[in-house]
Amino acid sequence: DADVTQTPRNRITKTGKRIMLECSQTKGHDRMYWYRQDPGLGLRLIYYSFDVKDINKGEISDGYSVSRQAQAKFSLSLESAIPNQTALYFCATSSMRGVYNEQFFGPGTRLTVL
Amino acid sequence: EDKVVQSPLSLVVHEGDTVTLNCSYEVTNFRSLLWYKQEKKAPTFLFMLTSSGIEKKSGRLSSILDKKELFSILNITATQTGDSAIYLCANAGGTSYGKLTFGQGTILTVHP
After folding, report:
1. What is the distance in angstroms between the Cα of A101 and the nearest Cα belonging to chain B?
2. Rounded Cα gap, residues B32 and B4, in angstroms
3. Nearest C-alpha neighbor of B79 from the set B63, B64, B60
4. A43-69 tens-digit pLDDT
5. For residues B111 and B11, what is the distance between their CA atoms, to the nearest angstrom?
6. How far apart are the C-alpha atoms of B15 and B10, rounded to whole Å?
7. B 43-72: CB under 8 A from A
């Protein structure tokens, strides 16, 4: 079984709809991250959480919100989706015991906003 | 603001060629530099570099870091079609321990 799972894997929605992407992990890691990937732009950080009570904005948080429901679960919401949020979204995890910051990625969610 | 720049952005070679991918960075409080390979979907970890001049090697892939000149290179020798992927460089540093700043990625295509 995968250590980091994301649901759904693909989603097509319309402008203005509310969307939630979910991430679960069985690695026992305390830190979780949400990234989006667009062609030619690499991975850009949306939000990150170092524990259940710690939520931080990344470089592109506008239009997104997150919830850390438990150590193992971190969800990303688009309150009112717009077409330029069409992208590949990744969840990642890491451990504070991993001194040098290696992150482990989920399989990604491809989101299309029409 | 932390910054990571990769070059080239894309590269097309034939099997057997050797390639060198570049990653330069600007970051406060450098901790490590990481390389990832992304094939179909999720990036997978290749190397983590923390010290200058010490080569990390795994099969045909190797990487080295220069902390004075603020760059790293990833070399792939005797390329194979299975090496076709996006190669991502990321830097761990800054004021928030645990965050990674990624470069744009290099798209490598290896033709038979």
Report:
1. 5
2. 13
3. B60
4. 999 999 998 999 999 989 999 999 999
5. 11
6. 16
7. 43-45, 48, 50
